[in-house]
Amino acid sequence: QIQLVQSGPELKKPGESVKISCKASGYTFTDYAMHWVKQVPGKGLKWMGWINTYTGKPTYADDFKGRFVFSLEASASTANLQISNLKNEDTANVFCARCIRGTGYYWYFDFWGPGTMVTVSS
Amino acid sequence: EIVLTQSPTTMAASPGEKVTLNCLASSSVSYMNWYQQKSGASPKLWIYGTSNLASGVPNRFSGSGSGTSYSLTISSMEAEDVATYYCLQLSSYPLTFGSGTKLEIK
Questions:
Q1: Alpha-carbon distance A81 to A18, whole Å?
Q2: How many contacts, defined by CB atoms under 8 Å, are there between A and B?
Q3: Per-residue model confidence as pLDDT tens digits over A45-60
Q4: How many other CB atoms are found less than 10 A from the CB of residue B51?
Q5: Predicted confidence (pLDDT) at residue B3 exceeds the cutoff of 90
Q6: Which of A51, A76, B33, B49 is spaced 20 to 30 A from B4 at the CA atom?
Q7: Which residues of B touch A101 (CB under 8 A)?
Q8: Angle value at C-alpha A24, between A23 and A29, nearest 5 degrees
Q9: What H or E segment, with its residue span, contains residue B89?
Q10: Distance (Å, rounded) from C-alpha B3 to C-alpha B10?
Q11: Chain centre to alpha carbon of residue B33
Q12: What is the DSSP string of chain A?
């Protein structure tokens, strides 16, 4: 069965870096793009960007350019998100989500990881 | 950027009541997806391509709309439907989510 397993919660200080992983299983990893979504506790969902798992090309939403890096370990069916120079406002639950094209012209996120809680506090 | 405005922000419905959640886009989109998120859990695909129910979604749910106006309807509210529902557009970058509708039971 299809699963996205994310790395565990992180507690970091401002200025530090963190790397979150999302390991996929149950399907061919390079056939589907992986997207990243941020959720501040008690708030809504915000799209961070995505990575083409075939080419490795990342695309970042404007608010996530500069300190955020999407990468792959394709041989391990894993997508990673690294955040550098952490700030208090990076405190959030971060989800990975697989993107699929339906039978037609529409795309959607069909499977989500359980989320990785990143807490930034001095 | 396409802004998605969901209404109402919060609502409470009685068991058996018909419920309609709305998602208004600032510009026309080709289709809409909906997600259900329960407290402490990751979002679940609920409706895709405007009107297609995801696997396992009860048929009391339906989706409709076009252009800038989309809706999710529950024909008869049940306790298990308590959750926050988000719309998501993938028609243009950046992808955007609505701010969510929190659905409670009376």
A1: 8
A2: 63
A3: 999 999 999 999 999 9
A4: 14
A5: yes
A6: A51
A7: none
A8: 125
A9: strand B83-89
A10: 19
A11: 7
A12: --EEEE---EEE-TT--EEEEEEEESS-GGGSEEEEEEE-TTS-EEEEEEE-TTT--EEE-GGGSSSEEEEEEGGGTEEEEEE-S--GGG-EEEEEEEEEE-SSS-EEEEEE---EEEEE--
* Contact B3/A at CB under 8 A: no
- Quick check: helix, strand or coil at residue B81? helix
End-to-end CA distance of chain B: 36
Structure-block tokens of residue A5: 């397993």
For chain B, how many residues are written?
Answer: 106
Question: At which residue do the structure tokens 């790397």 appear?
Answer: A19
Chain A residue closest to B41 (CA)? A114
Q: Where residue A15 falls among pLDDT bands split at 50, 70, 90?
A: very high
**Which single residue is written with the structure tokens 């979002």?**
B43
Tokens at A14, concatenated: 């401002």
For residue B31, count CB atoms less than 10 angstroms from its CB and return exposed for 0-12, middle for 13-18, buried for 19 or more: buried
Structure tokens given for A85: 């120079």
Distance from C-alpha of B36 to C-alpha of A29, rounded to nearest angstrom: 25
Average pLDDT over residues A99-112: 90
Locus of tokens 């008690």: A42
